Each structure stands twice: as structure tokens, then as C-alpha cells.
Amino acid sequence: MNVPATPAGEGKPGRNQTRLLFRSVRWRKPAPPPRQINRPVPARDVPGKIRQINVKPQVKGEHGLPKMPVASAFVTGAGIEGDFNVYRHEERQDDPDQALLLMPIEKIRELNSEGWPIKPGDLGENFTTSGIPYEAFSIGKVYASGRVRLQITKACDPCDNLFLLPYVGGSRGPGFLKVMLGRRGWYARVLAEGRVKTGDRLTEESAESARV
């Protein structure tokens, strides 16, 4: 029986054809996924908190430092109810731009590391804050805690009232004032009144909200 001849180019591939076929289906390493860039989170997305609320009522014969902690307080346009500041009342005529004083615990700890045994409330701050660096506060910034809204108005300058602290006194007072330059805390105006509690969140808001 005659077997028909296989036409040229048909049937089993030759050696060269096999190599070409293998190369065409050769496995290729998949491309790596796109690199993810870790961008810093904007400051307004990182909440701080009110670590401690400090007040000192008006008591005849007593000075205004230190202020003592309370669990909660009502904040008015004039400041914290039950708190009294002789300088603000007598020298500044209850200036609303100095209604509150804020001091970050991180700055207090920095001063502790330099040998000053400062405790929250010693410097006369109404709110000892945490989670917001001292340098992150600046004039014009607005912060909210519950219904309370406040706006930073100015930096507080150190004065000789700090000599009243038992670990300062007259002998160390001048040196302590130099240490406290640019580290004394931030004054704030109250934009919206309300009650605050220890541990409440303190978050930055848009500066435009100060106009509302």
C-alpha cells in the first residue's frame, strides 16, 4: 500500500521550530506592584486630647499658681468657670484673647528632662494637652473639643509670677524665666462655649470656621 508523503512543512515540527515555540511561551516574571509612598498624615487628622483641666478659684491671700486638676469644667467666653487669674482680671481687664492657657505635656516633660520638676497645672495652664506638639500650635489655629471651640491668639510670655513655684524661688527665678522663653504656653479665645472633660479629644479645625 502506498503511504502518501507528508508535504513539506507539515507533521512534527523540526528542532528549530520547537525552539521558537518554546521561546514564545517561556514564563516571564510578573512586574512588581507599584511602589506605595507613605505620605505624612496632615496635622488636622491626628487628634490630640485634653490630658488635664486645671483651675484655681479666687482665694484671699493665695496666689494663682499652681492650678489644681478637676474632672470637668464649663468653658465660657471669659474662660473656665471657677477659675480666676489676677493678672488677666486686673491688668488685662479680662481680655477674651487670654481666656484660656494651653500647655502640652510633651513640653512639660522636656523641661522635666532638664531638671525642672514641673507638674501639670504648675504653670497656670487651664488645659494640659497631649498629642499635639508645642510647635504645632500657632496664632490663628482653631481647635475643637466637643462643643467647645477655641482659637490660638498669642504665645504666653514668662513673668516673675513663676518665682512663686517652690522649686524656682527668687534665687533661680531669673534663670527659669530664660529657660521658659518660647515655652510658656499658648493663649486662646473661646469661640463656642460648652463643657469639657479630662480625656476629651482636641482636634484642629479649618481656620475659616472661626468666622462662622
Structure in words:
This protein is α+β, with helices and mostly antiparallel strands and 212 residues long. The protein has a domain at 45-155 and 183-206: M1 Pyruvate Kinase, Domain 3. The chain contains four helices and eleven strands; from the N terminus they run αββββαβαβββαβββ. It has helices at residues 15-24, 86-91, 105-113, 169-180, and strands at residues 48-55, 68-70, 72-76, 79-80, 100-104, 127-130, 142-145, 148-155, 186-192, 194-197, 201-205. Strands 1-6-5-9-8-7-11 form a seven-stranded mixed barrel. It has a three-stranded antiparallel sheet with strand order 4-3-10, with no helix packed on it. The chain is globular, with a radius of gyration of 33 Å. The termini are far apart. 27% of the residues are buried. The model is unreliable at 36-45 (pLDDT under 50).
Task: Describe the SSE topology.
Layout: H1 15-24, E1 48-55, E2 68-70, E3 72-76, E4 79-80, H2 86-91, E5 100-104, H3 105-113, E6 127-130, E7 142-145, E8 148-155, H4 169-180, E9 186-192, E10 194-197, E11 201-205
Parallel strand pairs: 5-6
Antiparallel strand pairs: 1-2, 1-6, 1-11, 3-4, 3-10, 5-9, 7-8, 7-11, 8-9
At the fold tier of CATH, the topology name of the domain at 45-155 and 183-206 is: M1 Pyruvate Kinase, Domain 3
Largest sheet: 7 strands, mixed, barrel
- Please tally the β strands and state the result: 11
What percent of residues are in strands?
Answer: 25-35%
Please tally the helical runs, counting DSSP H or I stretches of 4 or more residues: 4
